[in-house]
Structures are given as structure tokens and as C-alpha cells.
Amino acid sequence: MHHVLSVEQFDSSQIEELFVEADRFRDQVADPKQRRDLASRYVGKQLCSLFYEPSTRTRLSFEKAAANFGMIPISTENAREFSSASKGETIEDTVKVLNEYGFDIIVLRHHETGSASQAASVSETPIINAGDGKGEHPTQALLDAHTIFRKFGRLDNLRVAIGGDLANGRTARSLAQLLSHYKGNHLSFVSIPELQIGEDIKVKLRESGTGFEETTDMYDALRDTEVVYWTRLQRERLDNPDALPKGGFTIDALALEVLPQDAIIMHPLPRVDEIDPQVDADPRAQYFQQAGNGLYLRMALFDQILK
Ligand code: CP
Asked: Would strands 227-230 and 264-266 be described as parallel, antiparallel, or unpaired?
């Protein structure tokens, strides 16, 4: 593995190898002696986390993953304002300079779709796409898939309801693509018509034979699903988000009543108002554990790149 740019570059055996590694790192981190051993695994290696957009989970879990391996994380947040991008520097020039500094991995989040590929095109240093505009968020999809796999022991023959701002949400796009690599999945996309998932994703689903439907009826989608994957309105990517009709897509006590008991509720986070905090106490709510899974999945990715 060199650059990590898209979920499309992973086949099912690579994905499941990552899951095994992530679970192994989870066990090792939980054991004090093994945790100390891990902390010398990549001593001297350096991570550059280059974030042009805000992040809590992705940046901090990548940096924590680096710290768990004894790596040195060097970070810039809000690079859109505080790096020389604000003076007009291109992502290519920035990455060429970072290559001169000898980082071992660059984790990049950027507001423009395709920016991670642009960066990778000029980079000897491995680039990990930590979210590029409305494009992809491959490491989120991998940790999402791991969360599903930990619950169901499989990634095929699942009924998955994916809801929210599917036009602008890169996590929904990446997860739908990843699930299309597996047989027998059925996806229900729940959104208002203005925020439907992109045609490019629907084409991929059709080509792979993955069944899907689009609906505005949240309750209908929840009634018969195993995985609920809910997302927020991406206000920062919309010119006038307040002008959109309200979807009424909040997962709340009423929604829990129609959701099967063995389903799980996921969300890439941050949430705004699309999942009522009262839902957090329900055992089906898995979004905080899902975020936690990201630490170990990202350790596994680092290990694949560096070993
Ligand atoms: N899920 C996710 O990408 O969260 P952050 O924006 O906090 O990194």
C-alpha cells in the first residue's frame, strides 16, 4: 500500500486483513506491556497531518494512532487560513515542499474534490485522503465497514439505510461504494430530492448489481433494515442551506420503535440534530464506538504503509 485515496483501491481480502490487524492493535493497546512495545514500533517516523477543513475525529485519531506507534505527529489545522494556501499556494506545491522535509506519511483533508489525487500525483511520500470536498473519505468508510463487520460478521447480504445529505456527504458516498464490492447488499437512500446521492454512485451500484432505492420515507426505510447510517446536513457545502425543505429525518424515540431490535445506528459524526441525544442510551446506537474503531483501523493502515 502506498497512497490511500479511494475505497475503490481496496478489495475484500485487503479490507478484512485491515480488520484483523485493527482488532489485534485494539488488544495490544489494551495490554500495558504490549502498548509499551507498540510505542517503539515506528519510533523516528514522522506524520504530517495537513488539514484544510475542521476535524475532530479524523485528525486526532490519526495523530493518536501515530503516537501509539511512537511516531512524531506534526500538524496544521485550518491550513486554508493559516498555511500559505491563503497566499495562493497550490496543493501540489505545498506537497512538493513537504516531500523535501522527509515526512513518512501525509494525511490530507481538503475542501476541494480531487485534491488528494492531485497531491498524490506529485508525492513520493504516501498520501492518505482524510476527506476531499464532496468526494471521498476512504478511511471513514473502512472504519464504518469495520463497525458493521464487528456486529454482523459480514459485509454482504445486508440491508442498509443511508440517510441525510447524500449529495454533499462524502462518508455516505464512500460507504455506498465500499458496500457495492460485496454481494447481496441492498441500500435505501433516505433524503429529500435536493440532497440525493450522486449519479456517479448510482452508476457504480448498478454496474455492481447492488440493489438500491431512493425514498423520502424514513420510517419505511428503518422498518426493515440492519444498518442505519445517518448523516448531517453539510451546511458548509451549500449556498443557502436554510432554504432547503426540512426533511423530518430525525432518529428519535418514535424511529426507535420501528427499527428492528438487532439493527445498529451509525453516524460518522459530528451530529447536529439528526439523531436525538436520547437515542444514545439505546444499545443499537453505535456511533461513539464507531468513532473509537477508527483509531485501530488507522493504526492498521499506518502499519500497512510503513512495514
Ligand atoms: N467523521 C469525521 O470525518 O469526523 P471529523 O470531521 O471530526 O474528522
From this structure: parallel
Please tell me whether residues 145 and 70 are part of one structural domain. no
pLDDT in tens, 252-276: 999 999 999 999 999 999 999 999 9
Q: Is 160 left (phi over 0), alpha (psi -120 to 50) or beta?
A: beta
Supply the residue whose CA is at minimum distance from atom 6 of ligand 1. 55
Question: Are residues 239 and 211 in contact, defined by beta-carbon separation less than 8 angstroms?
Answer: no
All residues at 6 or more sequence positions from 48 whose CB lies less than 8 Å from its CB, including other chains? 74, 75, 98, 101, 103, 105, 106, 107, 125
Structural domain of 62: 7-136+292-306
Residues 179 and 101 in one domain: no
Which range, of 78-82, 111-115, 159-163, 220-224, averages the lowest pLDDT? 78-82
Kindly state whether residues 158 and 283 are assigned to the same domain: yes
Q: How many domains does one find in the chain?
A: 2
* CATH number of domain containing 74: 3.40.50.1370
What number is the average pLDDT over the span 84-89? Answer: 94
pTM of structure = 0.96
With beta carbons less than 8 A apart as the criterion, state whether 48 and 74 touch: yes
Element counts in the chain: helices (H) and strands (E) = 12, 9
Nearest Cα to Cα of residue 117 among 236, 268, 2: 2
Residue ID of nearest Cα to ligand 1 atom 1: 268
Residues 114 and 161 in one domain: no
Nearest to 1 by CA among 103, 176, 128: 128
Is the C-beta atom of 269 inside 6 A of ligand 1? yes
* Residues marked as catalytic: 57-58, 87, 109, 137
Residue 247 has pLDDT above 80, yes or no: no
Q: Are residues 119 and 215 in the same domain?
A: no
